[in-house]
Amino acid sequence: MIEITLGSAIIYYFASHALENKKKPPEAVYYSEVLDSRDPSFARNHSEVVMIKPALENQFRGIVRQAYDYSCGSAALTTVLNGFVGTQLSELQTMEGLLKFGEYNRIIERRSFSLLDMKRFVTALGYESGGYKGEFEDLIKQNQPAIVPINYAGFKHFVVYKAYKDGRVYVADPALGNISFDQSRFQEIWENNTMFLINVPQEQQKNLLALQEADLRHVDDATINRYAIVEVQNSPEFMNKIADRASTMRKVIDTGPNSPTYNQPINTFMRLYYKRK
After folding, report:
1. Mean pLDDT: which of 9-18, 147-156, 187-196, 223-232 is highest?
2. Is the domain of 129 the same as that of 204?
3. Does 72 qualify as catalytic in the annotation?
4. Catalytic residue among 63, 64, 72, 80
């Protein structure tokens, strides 16, 4: 009897540990589905793990998002300090530094930070910096991030210039995330052709603001306008056939009195429809 009890305990121990679930990563989604729901066999299952991330995580990749309507300057400066200089500051720490070393009374009065406030704080951190005025070509030649003021949608705003490629200017916007403008549009909104640069030794420079493949995925306005009014390429009948193939099929009795198959079994297709509440 003791041997049976001991054996059962050992079997239970190994079985429970063998079937113990591993800790799932927070970005993992596990799902399985039948490849063809009309196939009565459940042997054709498809299962896999999909790693997903919130869209905002990539939209604000490398960017310190501004916490207040008036804090685009401090958020843009923190973005450059962390992504290019290599500091690890929060926006709050940068705001405190700007208030301490900048023109405190004027900051409170205008509820915003200036390039002079930024220069004084960066100097206190031990780096050379300055605001400059130049042409668009001068901005490109720097080959480094720069804080630039823009006048966009009727508001004065600070963004971080990241790079220029194939006629587009890529910026890190503390309010909107990683966005881009075509060259002519950027030059229209670039205020006073001003740029703020921080001088950092090359061996210390970080590349957290470097362009990535996700930054290059954009659709220009001309393409959107062209395809927004294009007529449907395929007929509704053709699209219905495609939808029927992807849906679940079932047998029902035709209840339509005017149908040639009235009171006869026919195949119907169950589709899923979604709508916002």
Report:
1. 187-196
2. yes
3. yes
4. 72
Evaluate whether residue 189 is within a structural domain.
Answer: yes
Residues of the domain holding 119: 56-216
Residue 96 CA, chain-centre distance (Å), reads 28
Tell me: do 166 and 106 sit in the same domain.
Answer: yes
The answer on 244 and 165 residing in a single domain is no
Amino acid at 69: D
Task: Mark whether 130 and 249 lie in a shared domain.
Answer: no
Task: Kindly state whether residues 166 and 60 are assigned to the same domain.
Answer: yes
HSE (CB half, 13 Å, CA atoms) of 251? 3
pLDDT at residue 229 in the model = 60
Residue 277 — very low, low, confident or very high, per pLDDT cuts 50/70/90? very low
Residue 90 shares a structural domain with residue 139:
yes
Under the banding of pLDDT at 50, 70 and 90, the label for residue 146 is very high
Within a domain: 41? no
Q: Count structural domains, the chain.
A: 2
For residue 18, is pLDDT > 60? no
Average pLDDT over residues 100-104: 92
Q: What is the pLDDT of residue 94?
A: 96
